[in-house]
Write a structure and sequence with these properties.
heterodimer, A: 469 residues, Aconitase, domain 3, Aconitase, Domain 2, 3 domains, 19 strands, 17% strand, B: 207 residues, alpha/beta, Aconitase, domain 4, 4-stranded antiparallel sheet, 8 strands, 13% strand, globular, binds iron/sulfur cluster
Chain lengths: 469, 207
């Protein structure tokens, strides 16, 4: 059993009671909501005649269904408009802050909470969205929940939870140029499998993790759930504190010093015990691309689609299903695979540094003929910062569309979607069948820089060939 | 919120016909594609369960999808393989299964958020080991008309053959058999402890 880890400490601090069924009641420090998984929770609350216990600890935004071309109200899609109107009404009725369109603070829930300084080390963070693991980048224990649990948090500011085991993922060395946190996490999931993390929290540590920026740590923790781990985290350090200082909801003045002292005390110490440990070497990781229908079906861009013989016997039925669905040949190189649509965005890779990395590749080049390429900033703040640097102009000059913030083609609940058998190069997090809005559409996951390279080449291309030597 | 036929109170077992949806890593996007999430109630989700898989199999040689086969209409026990329900946290997935008629799931393993969502709705998910699962699925496939009996308290499944031993962690098992799976009341019962825990957290008062 783990002991002395950040996970153990934060768990202990938030433990309210042991419940009759054996679960633990855990206080939730920050609750984030959005338009898709909250309406039924508010209705349930109403049915039960309950109030929101701590409206000041819930923060709302709108992201999943917003269009990215024109965000004028009412939306063209009446269902999307109804969902947003329902969220607005629920927030108004219960006194919950909503960062709505045009507020300057709207964006994907996992992008805005960190940038507003809402997410802080040592908190428990819950949201009706599986990628809540993102907030673990700050040394928070953050996990996705279902709608019944959203109801529970609204009603009680707590949840019934079972304690997870803790696996330390230690990464030595340094990522090579052209290799990003996205490649690292795709590599981890490829190695440990999409089920490998079930029952675990992943603690990411080691020299390669220490060297990551906060935005890179968010990309890493964001995809812990794709490896089956309900939460992933990085211990808070000077990088964390530097990111938080001066943000709207971060402590300031003398409180800042006290906060830093407390946050520092939460990190897993040298004496911490883990249930399991796995080691990786960052230097050996190449830009990684998925070829199949789960995020675990990834390979280096210089590798070939694994043959059945190269596949673990247990994984062979899934590999065969993936060959059929993706129409990729076992043994064929992944580089050179033609793409139709290139999407840069999502809570995995829609932050400023992601757009900078992609723009560095796009600058002075042009999207290949026939390719639809578009960039969706993760939030209004990201959009403003990118525009202030002229990144929007770089993308537009290169033939990309520059859109309004939202989830967009990560899950295609808005008009941005694949058509028919189209294949995308996507900086998002899921390549499940049908994920990007067409039941037969196909997705290749990769880093934003690799998506930009694919857009330029019209096919999967090793971004390292396009970067200055 | 719930339609009248949704479970209430203690869930000690379930009796019903079974339907097999074979394969590992069946994610929640497949159970209920995202376009059906554009709703402010769960009511209309039943017919949309597995929509894309069903459409794909409707015209395929291997089709139709088990949920569209006449012999499985009215089935209420879903038999699956590994890592069922991975991916998105959408509670729309168990909601859609339940609104189609599923009242229990037996599989080799479940994604955690999915398992928790099911528990919160009173949909028991029990685990069989690989060999047992293949035997259960074979038995269900051979005699689709023969009902199975799932004993949640004892964690066993009996059908045309069996019984097969299953596993269900003690916590969820207790919650189901005592009827405390719908836990909001339990959480609210600890108001004083909640306030104490909250007050002790340095970040609550802004440090
Ligand atoms: S960007 Fe994608 S994964 Fe992230 S919150 Fe939106 S839909 Fe979910």
């Amino acid at each position: 059993m783990s002991a002395g880890t950040l996970y153990d400490k934060v768990w202990e601090l938030h433990r309210v009671a042991e419940l009759p069924g054996g679960a633990t009641q855990l206080f939730i420090g920050l609750h984030l909501i959005h338009e898709v998984t909250s309406p039924q929770a508010f209705s349930a609350l109403e049915d039960l005649g309950l109030a929101v216990r701590h409206p000041e600890r819930t923060v709302a935004t709108v992201d999943h269904i917003v269009p990215t071309t024109s965000q004028a109200r009412p939306f063209a899609d009446p269902l999307a408009e109804e969902m947003l109107a329902t969220l607005e009404a629920n927030c108004a009725e219960h006194g919950i802050t909503l960062h709505g369109l045009g507020s300057g603070r709207q964006g994907i829930v996992h992008v805005i909470a960190p940038e507003l300084g809402l997410t802080q080390p040592g908190m428990t963070v819950a949201c009706g969205d599986s990628h809540t693991s993102t907030h673990g980048a700050f040394g928070a224990i953050a996990f996705g929940i279902g709608t019944s649990q959203v109801r529970d948090v609204l009603a009680s500011q707590s949840l019934a939870m079972g304690k997870l085991k803790v696996r330390r993922i230690w990464v030595d060395g340094q990522l090579q140029p052209g290799v990003y946190a996205k490649d690292l996490v795709l590599h981890v999931i490829r190695s440990l499998g999409v089920k490998g993390g079930v029952g675990y929290a992943y603690e990411f540590a080691g020299p390669a993790i220490d060297a990551l920026s906060m935005e890179e740590r968010m990309t890493l923790c964001n995809m812990a759930i794709e490896g089956g781990a309900r939460c992933g985290y990085v211990n808070p350090d000077a990088t964390t504190f530097a990111y938080l200082q001066g943000r709207p909801h971060a402590p300031s003045g003398e409180a800042w010093e006290r906060a830093v002292a407390w946050w520092s005390s939460l990190a897993s110490g040298p004496e911490a015990g883990f249930d399991d440990e796995v080691r990786f070497d960052a230097a050996s990781i190449a830009p990684t691309v998925t070829w199949g229908i789960t995020p675990g079906q990834g390979i280096g861009v210089d590798e070939t689609v694994p043959t059945l013989e190269q596949t673990d016997p247990d994984e062979r039925p899934l590999a065969e299903e993936a060959y059929r669905y993706m129409d990729l040949q076992p043994g064929a190189p992944i580089a050179g695979t033609p793409v139709d649509v290139c999407f840069i965005g999502s809570c995995t890779n829609g932050r400023l540094s992601d757009l900078q990395a992609a723009a560095a590749v796009a600058k002075g080049r042009h999207v290949a003929p026939g390719i639809k390429a578009f960039v969706v900033p993760g939030s209004e703040q990201v959009a403003a910062a990118a525009e202030a640097e002229g990144l929007d102009q770089v993308f537009i000059a290169a033939g990309f569309e520059w859109r309004e913030p939202g989830c967009s083609m990560c899950l295609a609940m808005n008009p941005d979607r694949l058509e028919g058998r189209q294949i995308s190069a996507s900086s998002s997090n899921r390549n499940f069948k049908g994920r990007q809005g067409s039941a037969t559409g196909r997705t290749l996951l990769m880093s934003p820089a690799m998506v930009a390279a694919a857009a330029i080449a019209g096919q999967v291309r090793d971004v390292r060939e396009l970067l200055p030597a | 919120m719930s339609s009248p036929s949704f479970p209430m109170g203690p869930i000690t077992g379930h009796h019903g016909r079974a339907v097999v949806v074979a394969g590992d890593d069946i994610d929640t996007d497949r159970i209920i594609p995202a376009r059906f999430l554009k709703c402010v109630t769960f009511e209309a989700l039943g017919p949309a369960v597995f929509a894309d898989d069903r459409a794909e199999l409707a015209t395929a040689a291997a089709g139709p999808h088990p949920f569209d086969r006449p012999e499985h209409q009215g089935a209420s026990i879903l038999l699956v393989n590994r890592n069922f329900g991975c991916g998105s946290s959408r509670e729309h997935a168990p909601q859609a299964l339940m609104r189609w008629g599923i009242r229990a799931v037996v599989g080799e393993s479940f994604a955690e958020i999915f398992f928790g969502n099911c528990l919160a709705l009173g949909l028991p998910c029990l685990v069989a080991d690989h060999t047992a699962m293949l035997a259960i699925q074979a038995a269900a496939g051979a005699e689709p008309q023969v009902p199975f009996h799932l004993d949640v308290a004892a964690a066993t499944l009996t059908g045309p053959a069996g019984p097969w031993p299953l596993t269900l962690p003690d916590g969820p098992r207790q919650m189901l058999v005592t009827g405390q799976w719908d836990g909001t009341g339990q959480l609210l019962a600890h108001a004083a402890q909640l306030d104490r825990t909250r007050a002790a957290l340095p970040y609550i008062g802004g440090f």
